[in-house]
Amino acid sequence: MERFPGYKIYEGYNPDQYKTSVQKKVERVLGEAEKERGRMRAETMEFRELLDREAESLRNFFGYDIEVPELPEEITPERYEKWKEMGLELHYLPDEELDEGRDLPGWKKKPGTRYTPDKKWGIEFFDEVKNGNLPKETLKLPAAWILVDTREKPQYQDGKQKYADDILAETLEDLRKKKVITDFKVKDSRYNISWDELNKPEVKKAIAEALDVPPESLRLPRAIEWNYMGNVYYPKWGGANTWEWFEDSYMKGQGRLDGGSSGDGGLSIVRWDDPDGRSAGLGFRPQVLFSRE
Questions:
Q1: 259 contacts 111 by C-beta, under 8 angstroms
Q2: Is 61 helix (H, G, I), strand (E, B) or coil?
Q3: Listed residue (216, 223, 220, 225) closest to 190, CA to CA
Q4: pTM score of the predicted model
Q5: Backbone angles phi, psi at 169, to 5 degrees
Q6: What is the pLDDT of residue 18?
Q7: Tell me, what's the pLDDT at 265?
Q8: What is the side-by-side strand order in the sheet with 144-149?
């Protein structure tokens, strides 16, 4: 039965051909707006999941709820995706002091000689704060969002070891070619670089460019931050027999801290070295500290 007796629909009829240019433009704009709303909903959900994840991790470590602030405006969804592709991740470090006496459910491996298996090597981390060789703020977390390199340390292989899929390889090779940092048999290696070299303005600038961050926000992890991150997220950081530099000043700058070797205590081992010293087994991990605003 015909829907409209006596009338036939032209087989080649296309309703769009009768729309005005204005109608077509409005529909196109509305379609693009709907796509944008969908993208924004997905991005908002991803960031909300990130905040929820951090809140849960803080609760598991400290044993109570800690408010996680919104992400700084400089952290956009596009940048976050780019950083994740690089092997980097965002975390929130709260306004907390990790004093030795705190009995926290997630703090399984505290830093210091007495917490290592042999109880022989490294420094007594908390005692060095008490006696003034390390400043009091050494035990404080910064109340800020950070961006951290999540890669595991490699096992020592006579200096030939490298961090997997290293995003800094090309940058470090270029810095060695330019003689900004000391030459080494593995040109693109993170090893055999001194603390002083890592803090040269031209080195920080080059690494910051590789990470797409401002140079002033780039530094090494402090020992307490590294230990916290290892306990909460990255226990394998203490699972290789190589070392990493930390940001901390020791004895008013005469030394700088490093740690992490599995053979000496993993997440618990902390020692000090000369800031101009270098070793084929001592590498580094960049960390970005975002504005606290």
A1: yes
A2: helix
A3: 220
A4: 0.85
A5: -55, -50
A6: 59
A7: 97
A8: 88-93, 144-149, 287-289, 218-219
Question: At 251, which amino acid appears?
Answer: M
CB of 138 closer than 8 Å to CB of 98: no
In sequence order, what are the beta bridge partners of 271?
258
> And the tokens for 233?
């997220």
Structure tokens at 106: 């997630």
Sheet order of strands, 282-283 included = 270-273, 255-259, 243-250, 282-283
Q: Indicate the domain borders of the chain.
A: 91-289
Q: What type of residue is 198?
A: L
Kindly report the CA angle at 144 between 139 and 149, in degrees rounded to 5? Answer: 85
Q: Please write the tens of the pLDDT for every residue from 66-82.
A: 999 999 999 999 999 99
**What's the alpha-carbon Rg for the chain, to the nearest Å?**
26
Angle of CA points 214, 147, 221, to nearest 5°: 95
Which residue's entry shows tokens 């961006």?
A: 147
Q: Is the pLDDT of residue 42 over 50?
A: no
**Share above pLDDT 90 across residues of the chain, in percent, rounded to a whole number:** 84
Between CA 34 and CA 85 the distance in angstroms is 27
> How confident is the model over 136-160, as pLDDT tens digits?
999 999 999 999 999 999 999 999 9
What per-residue confidence (pLDDT) applies to 292? 73
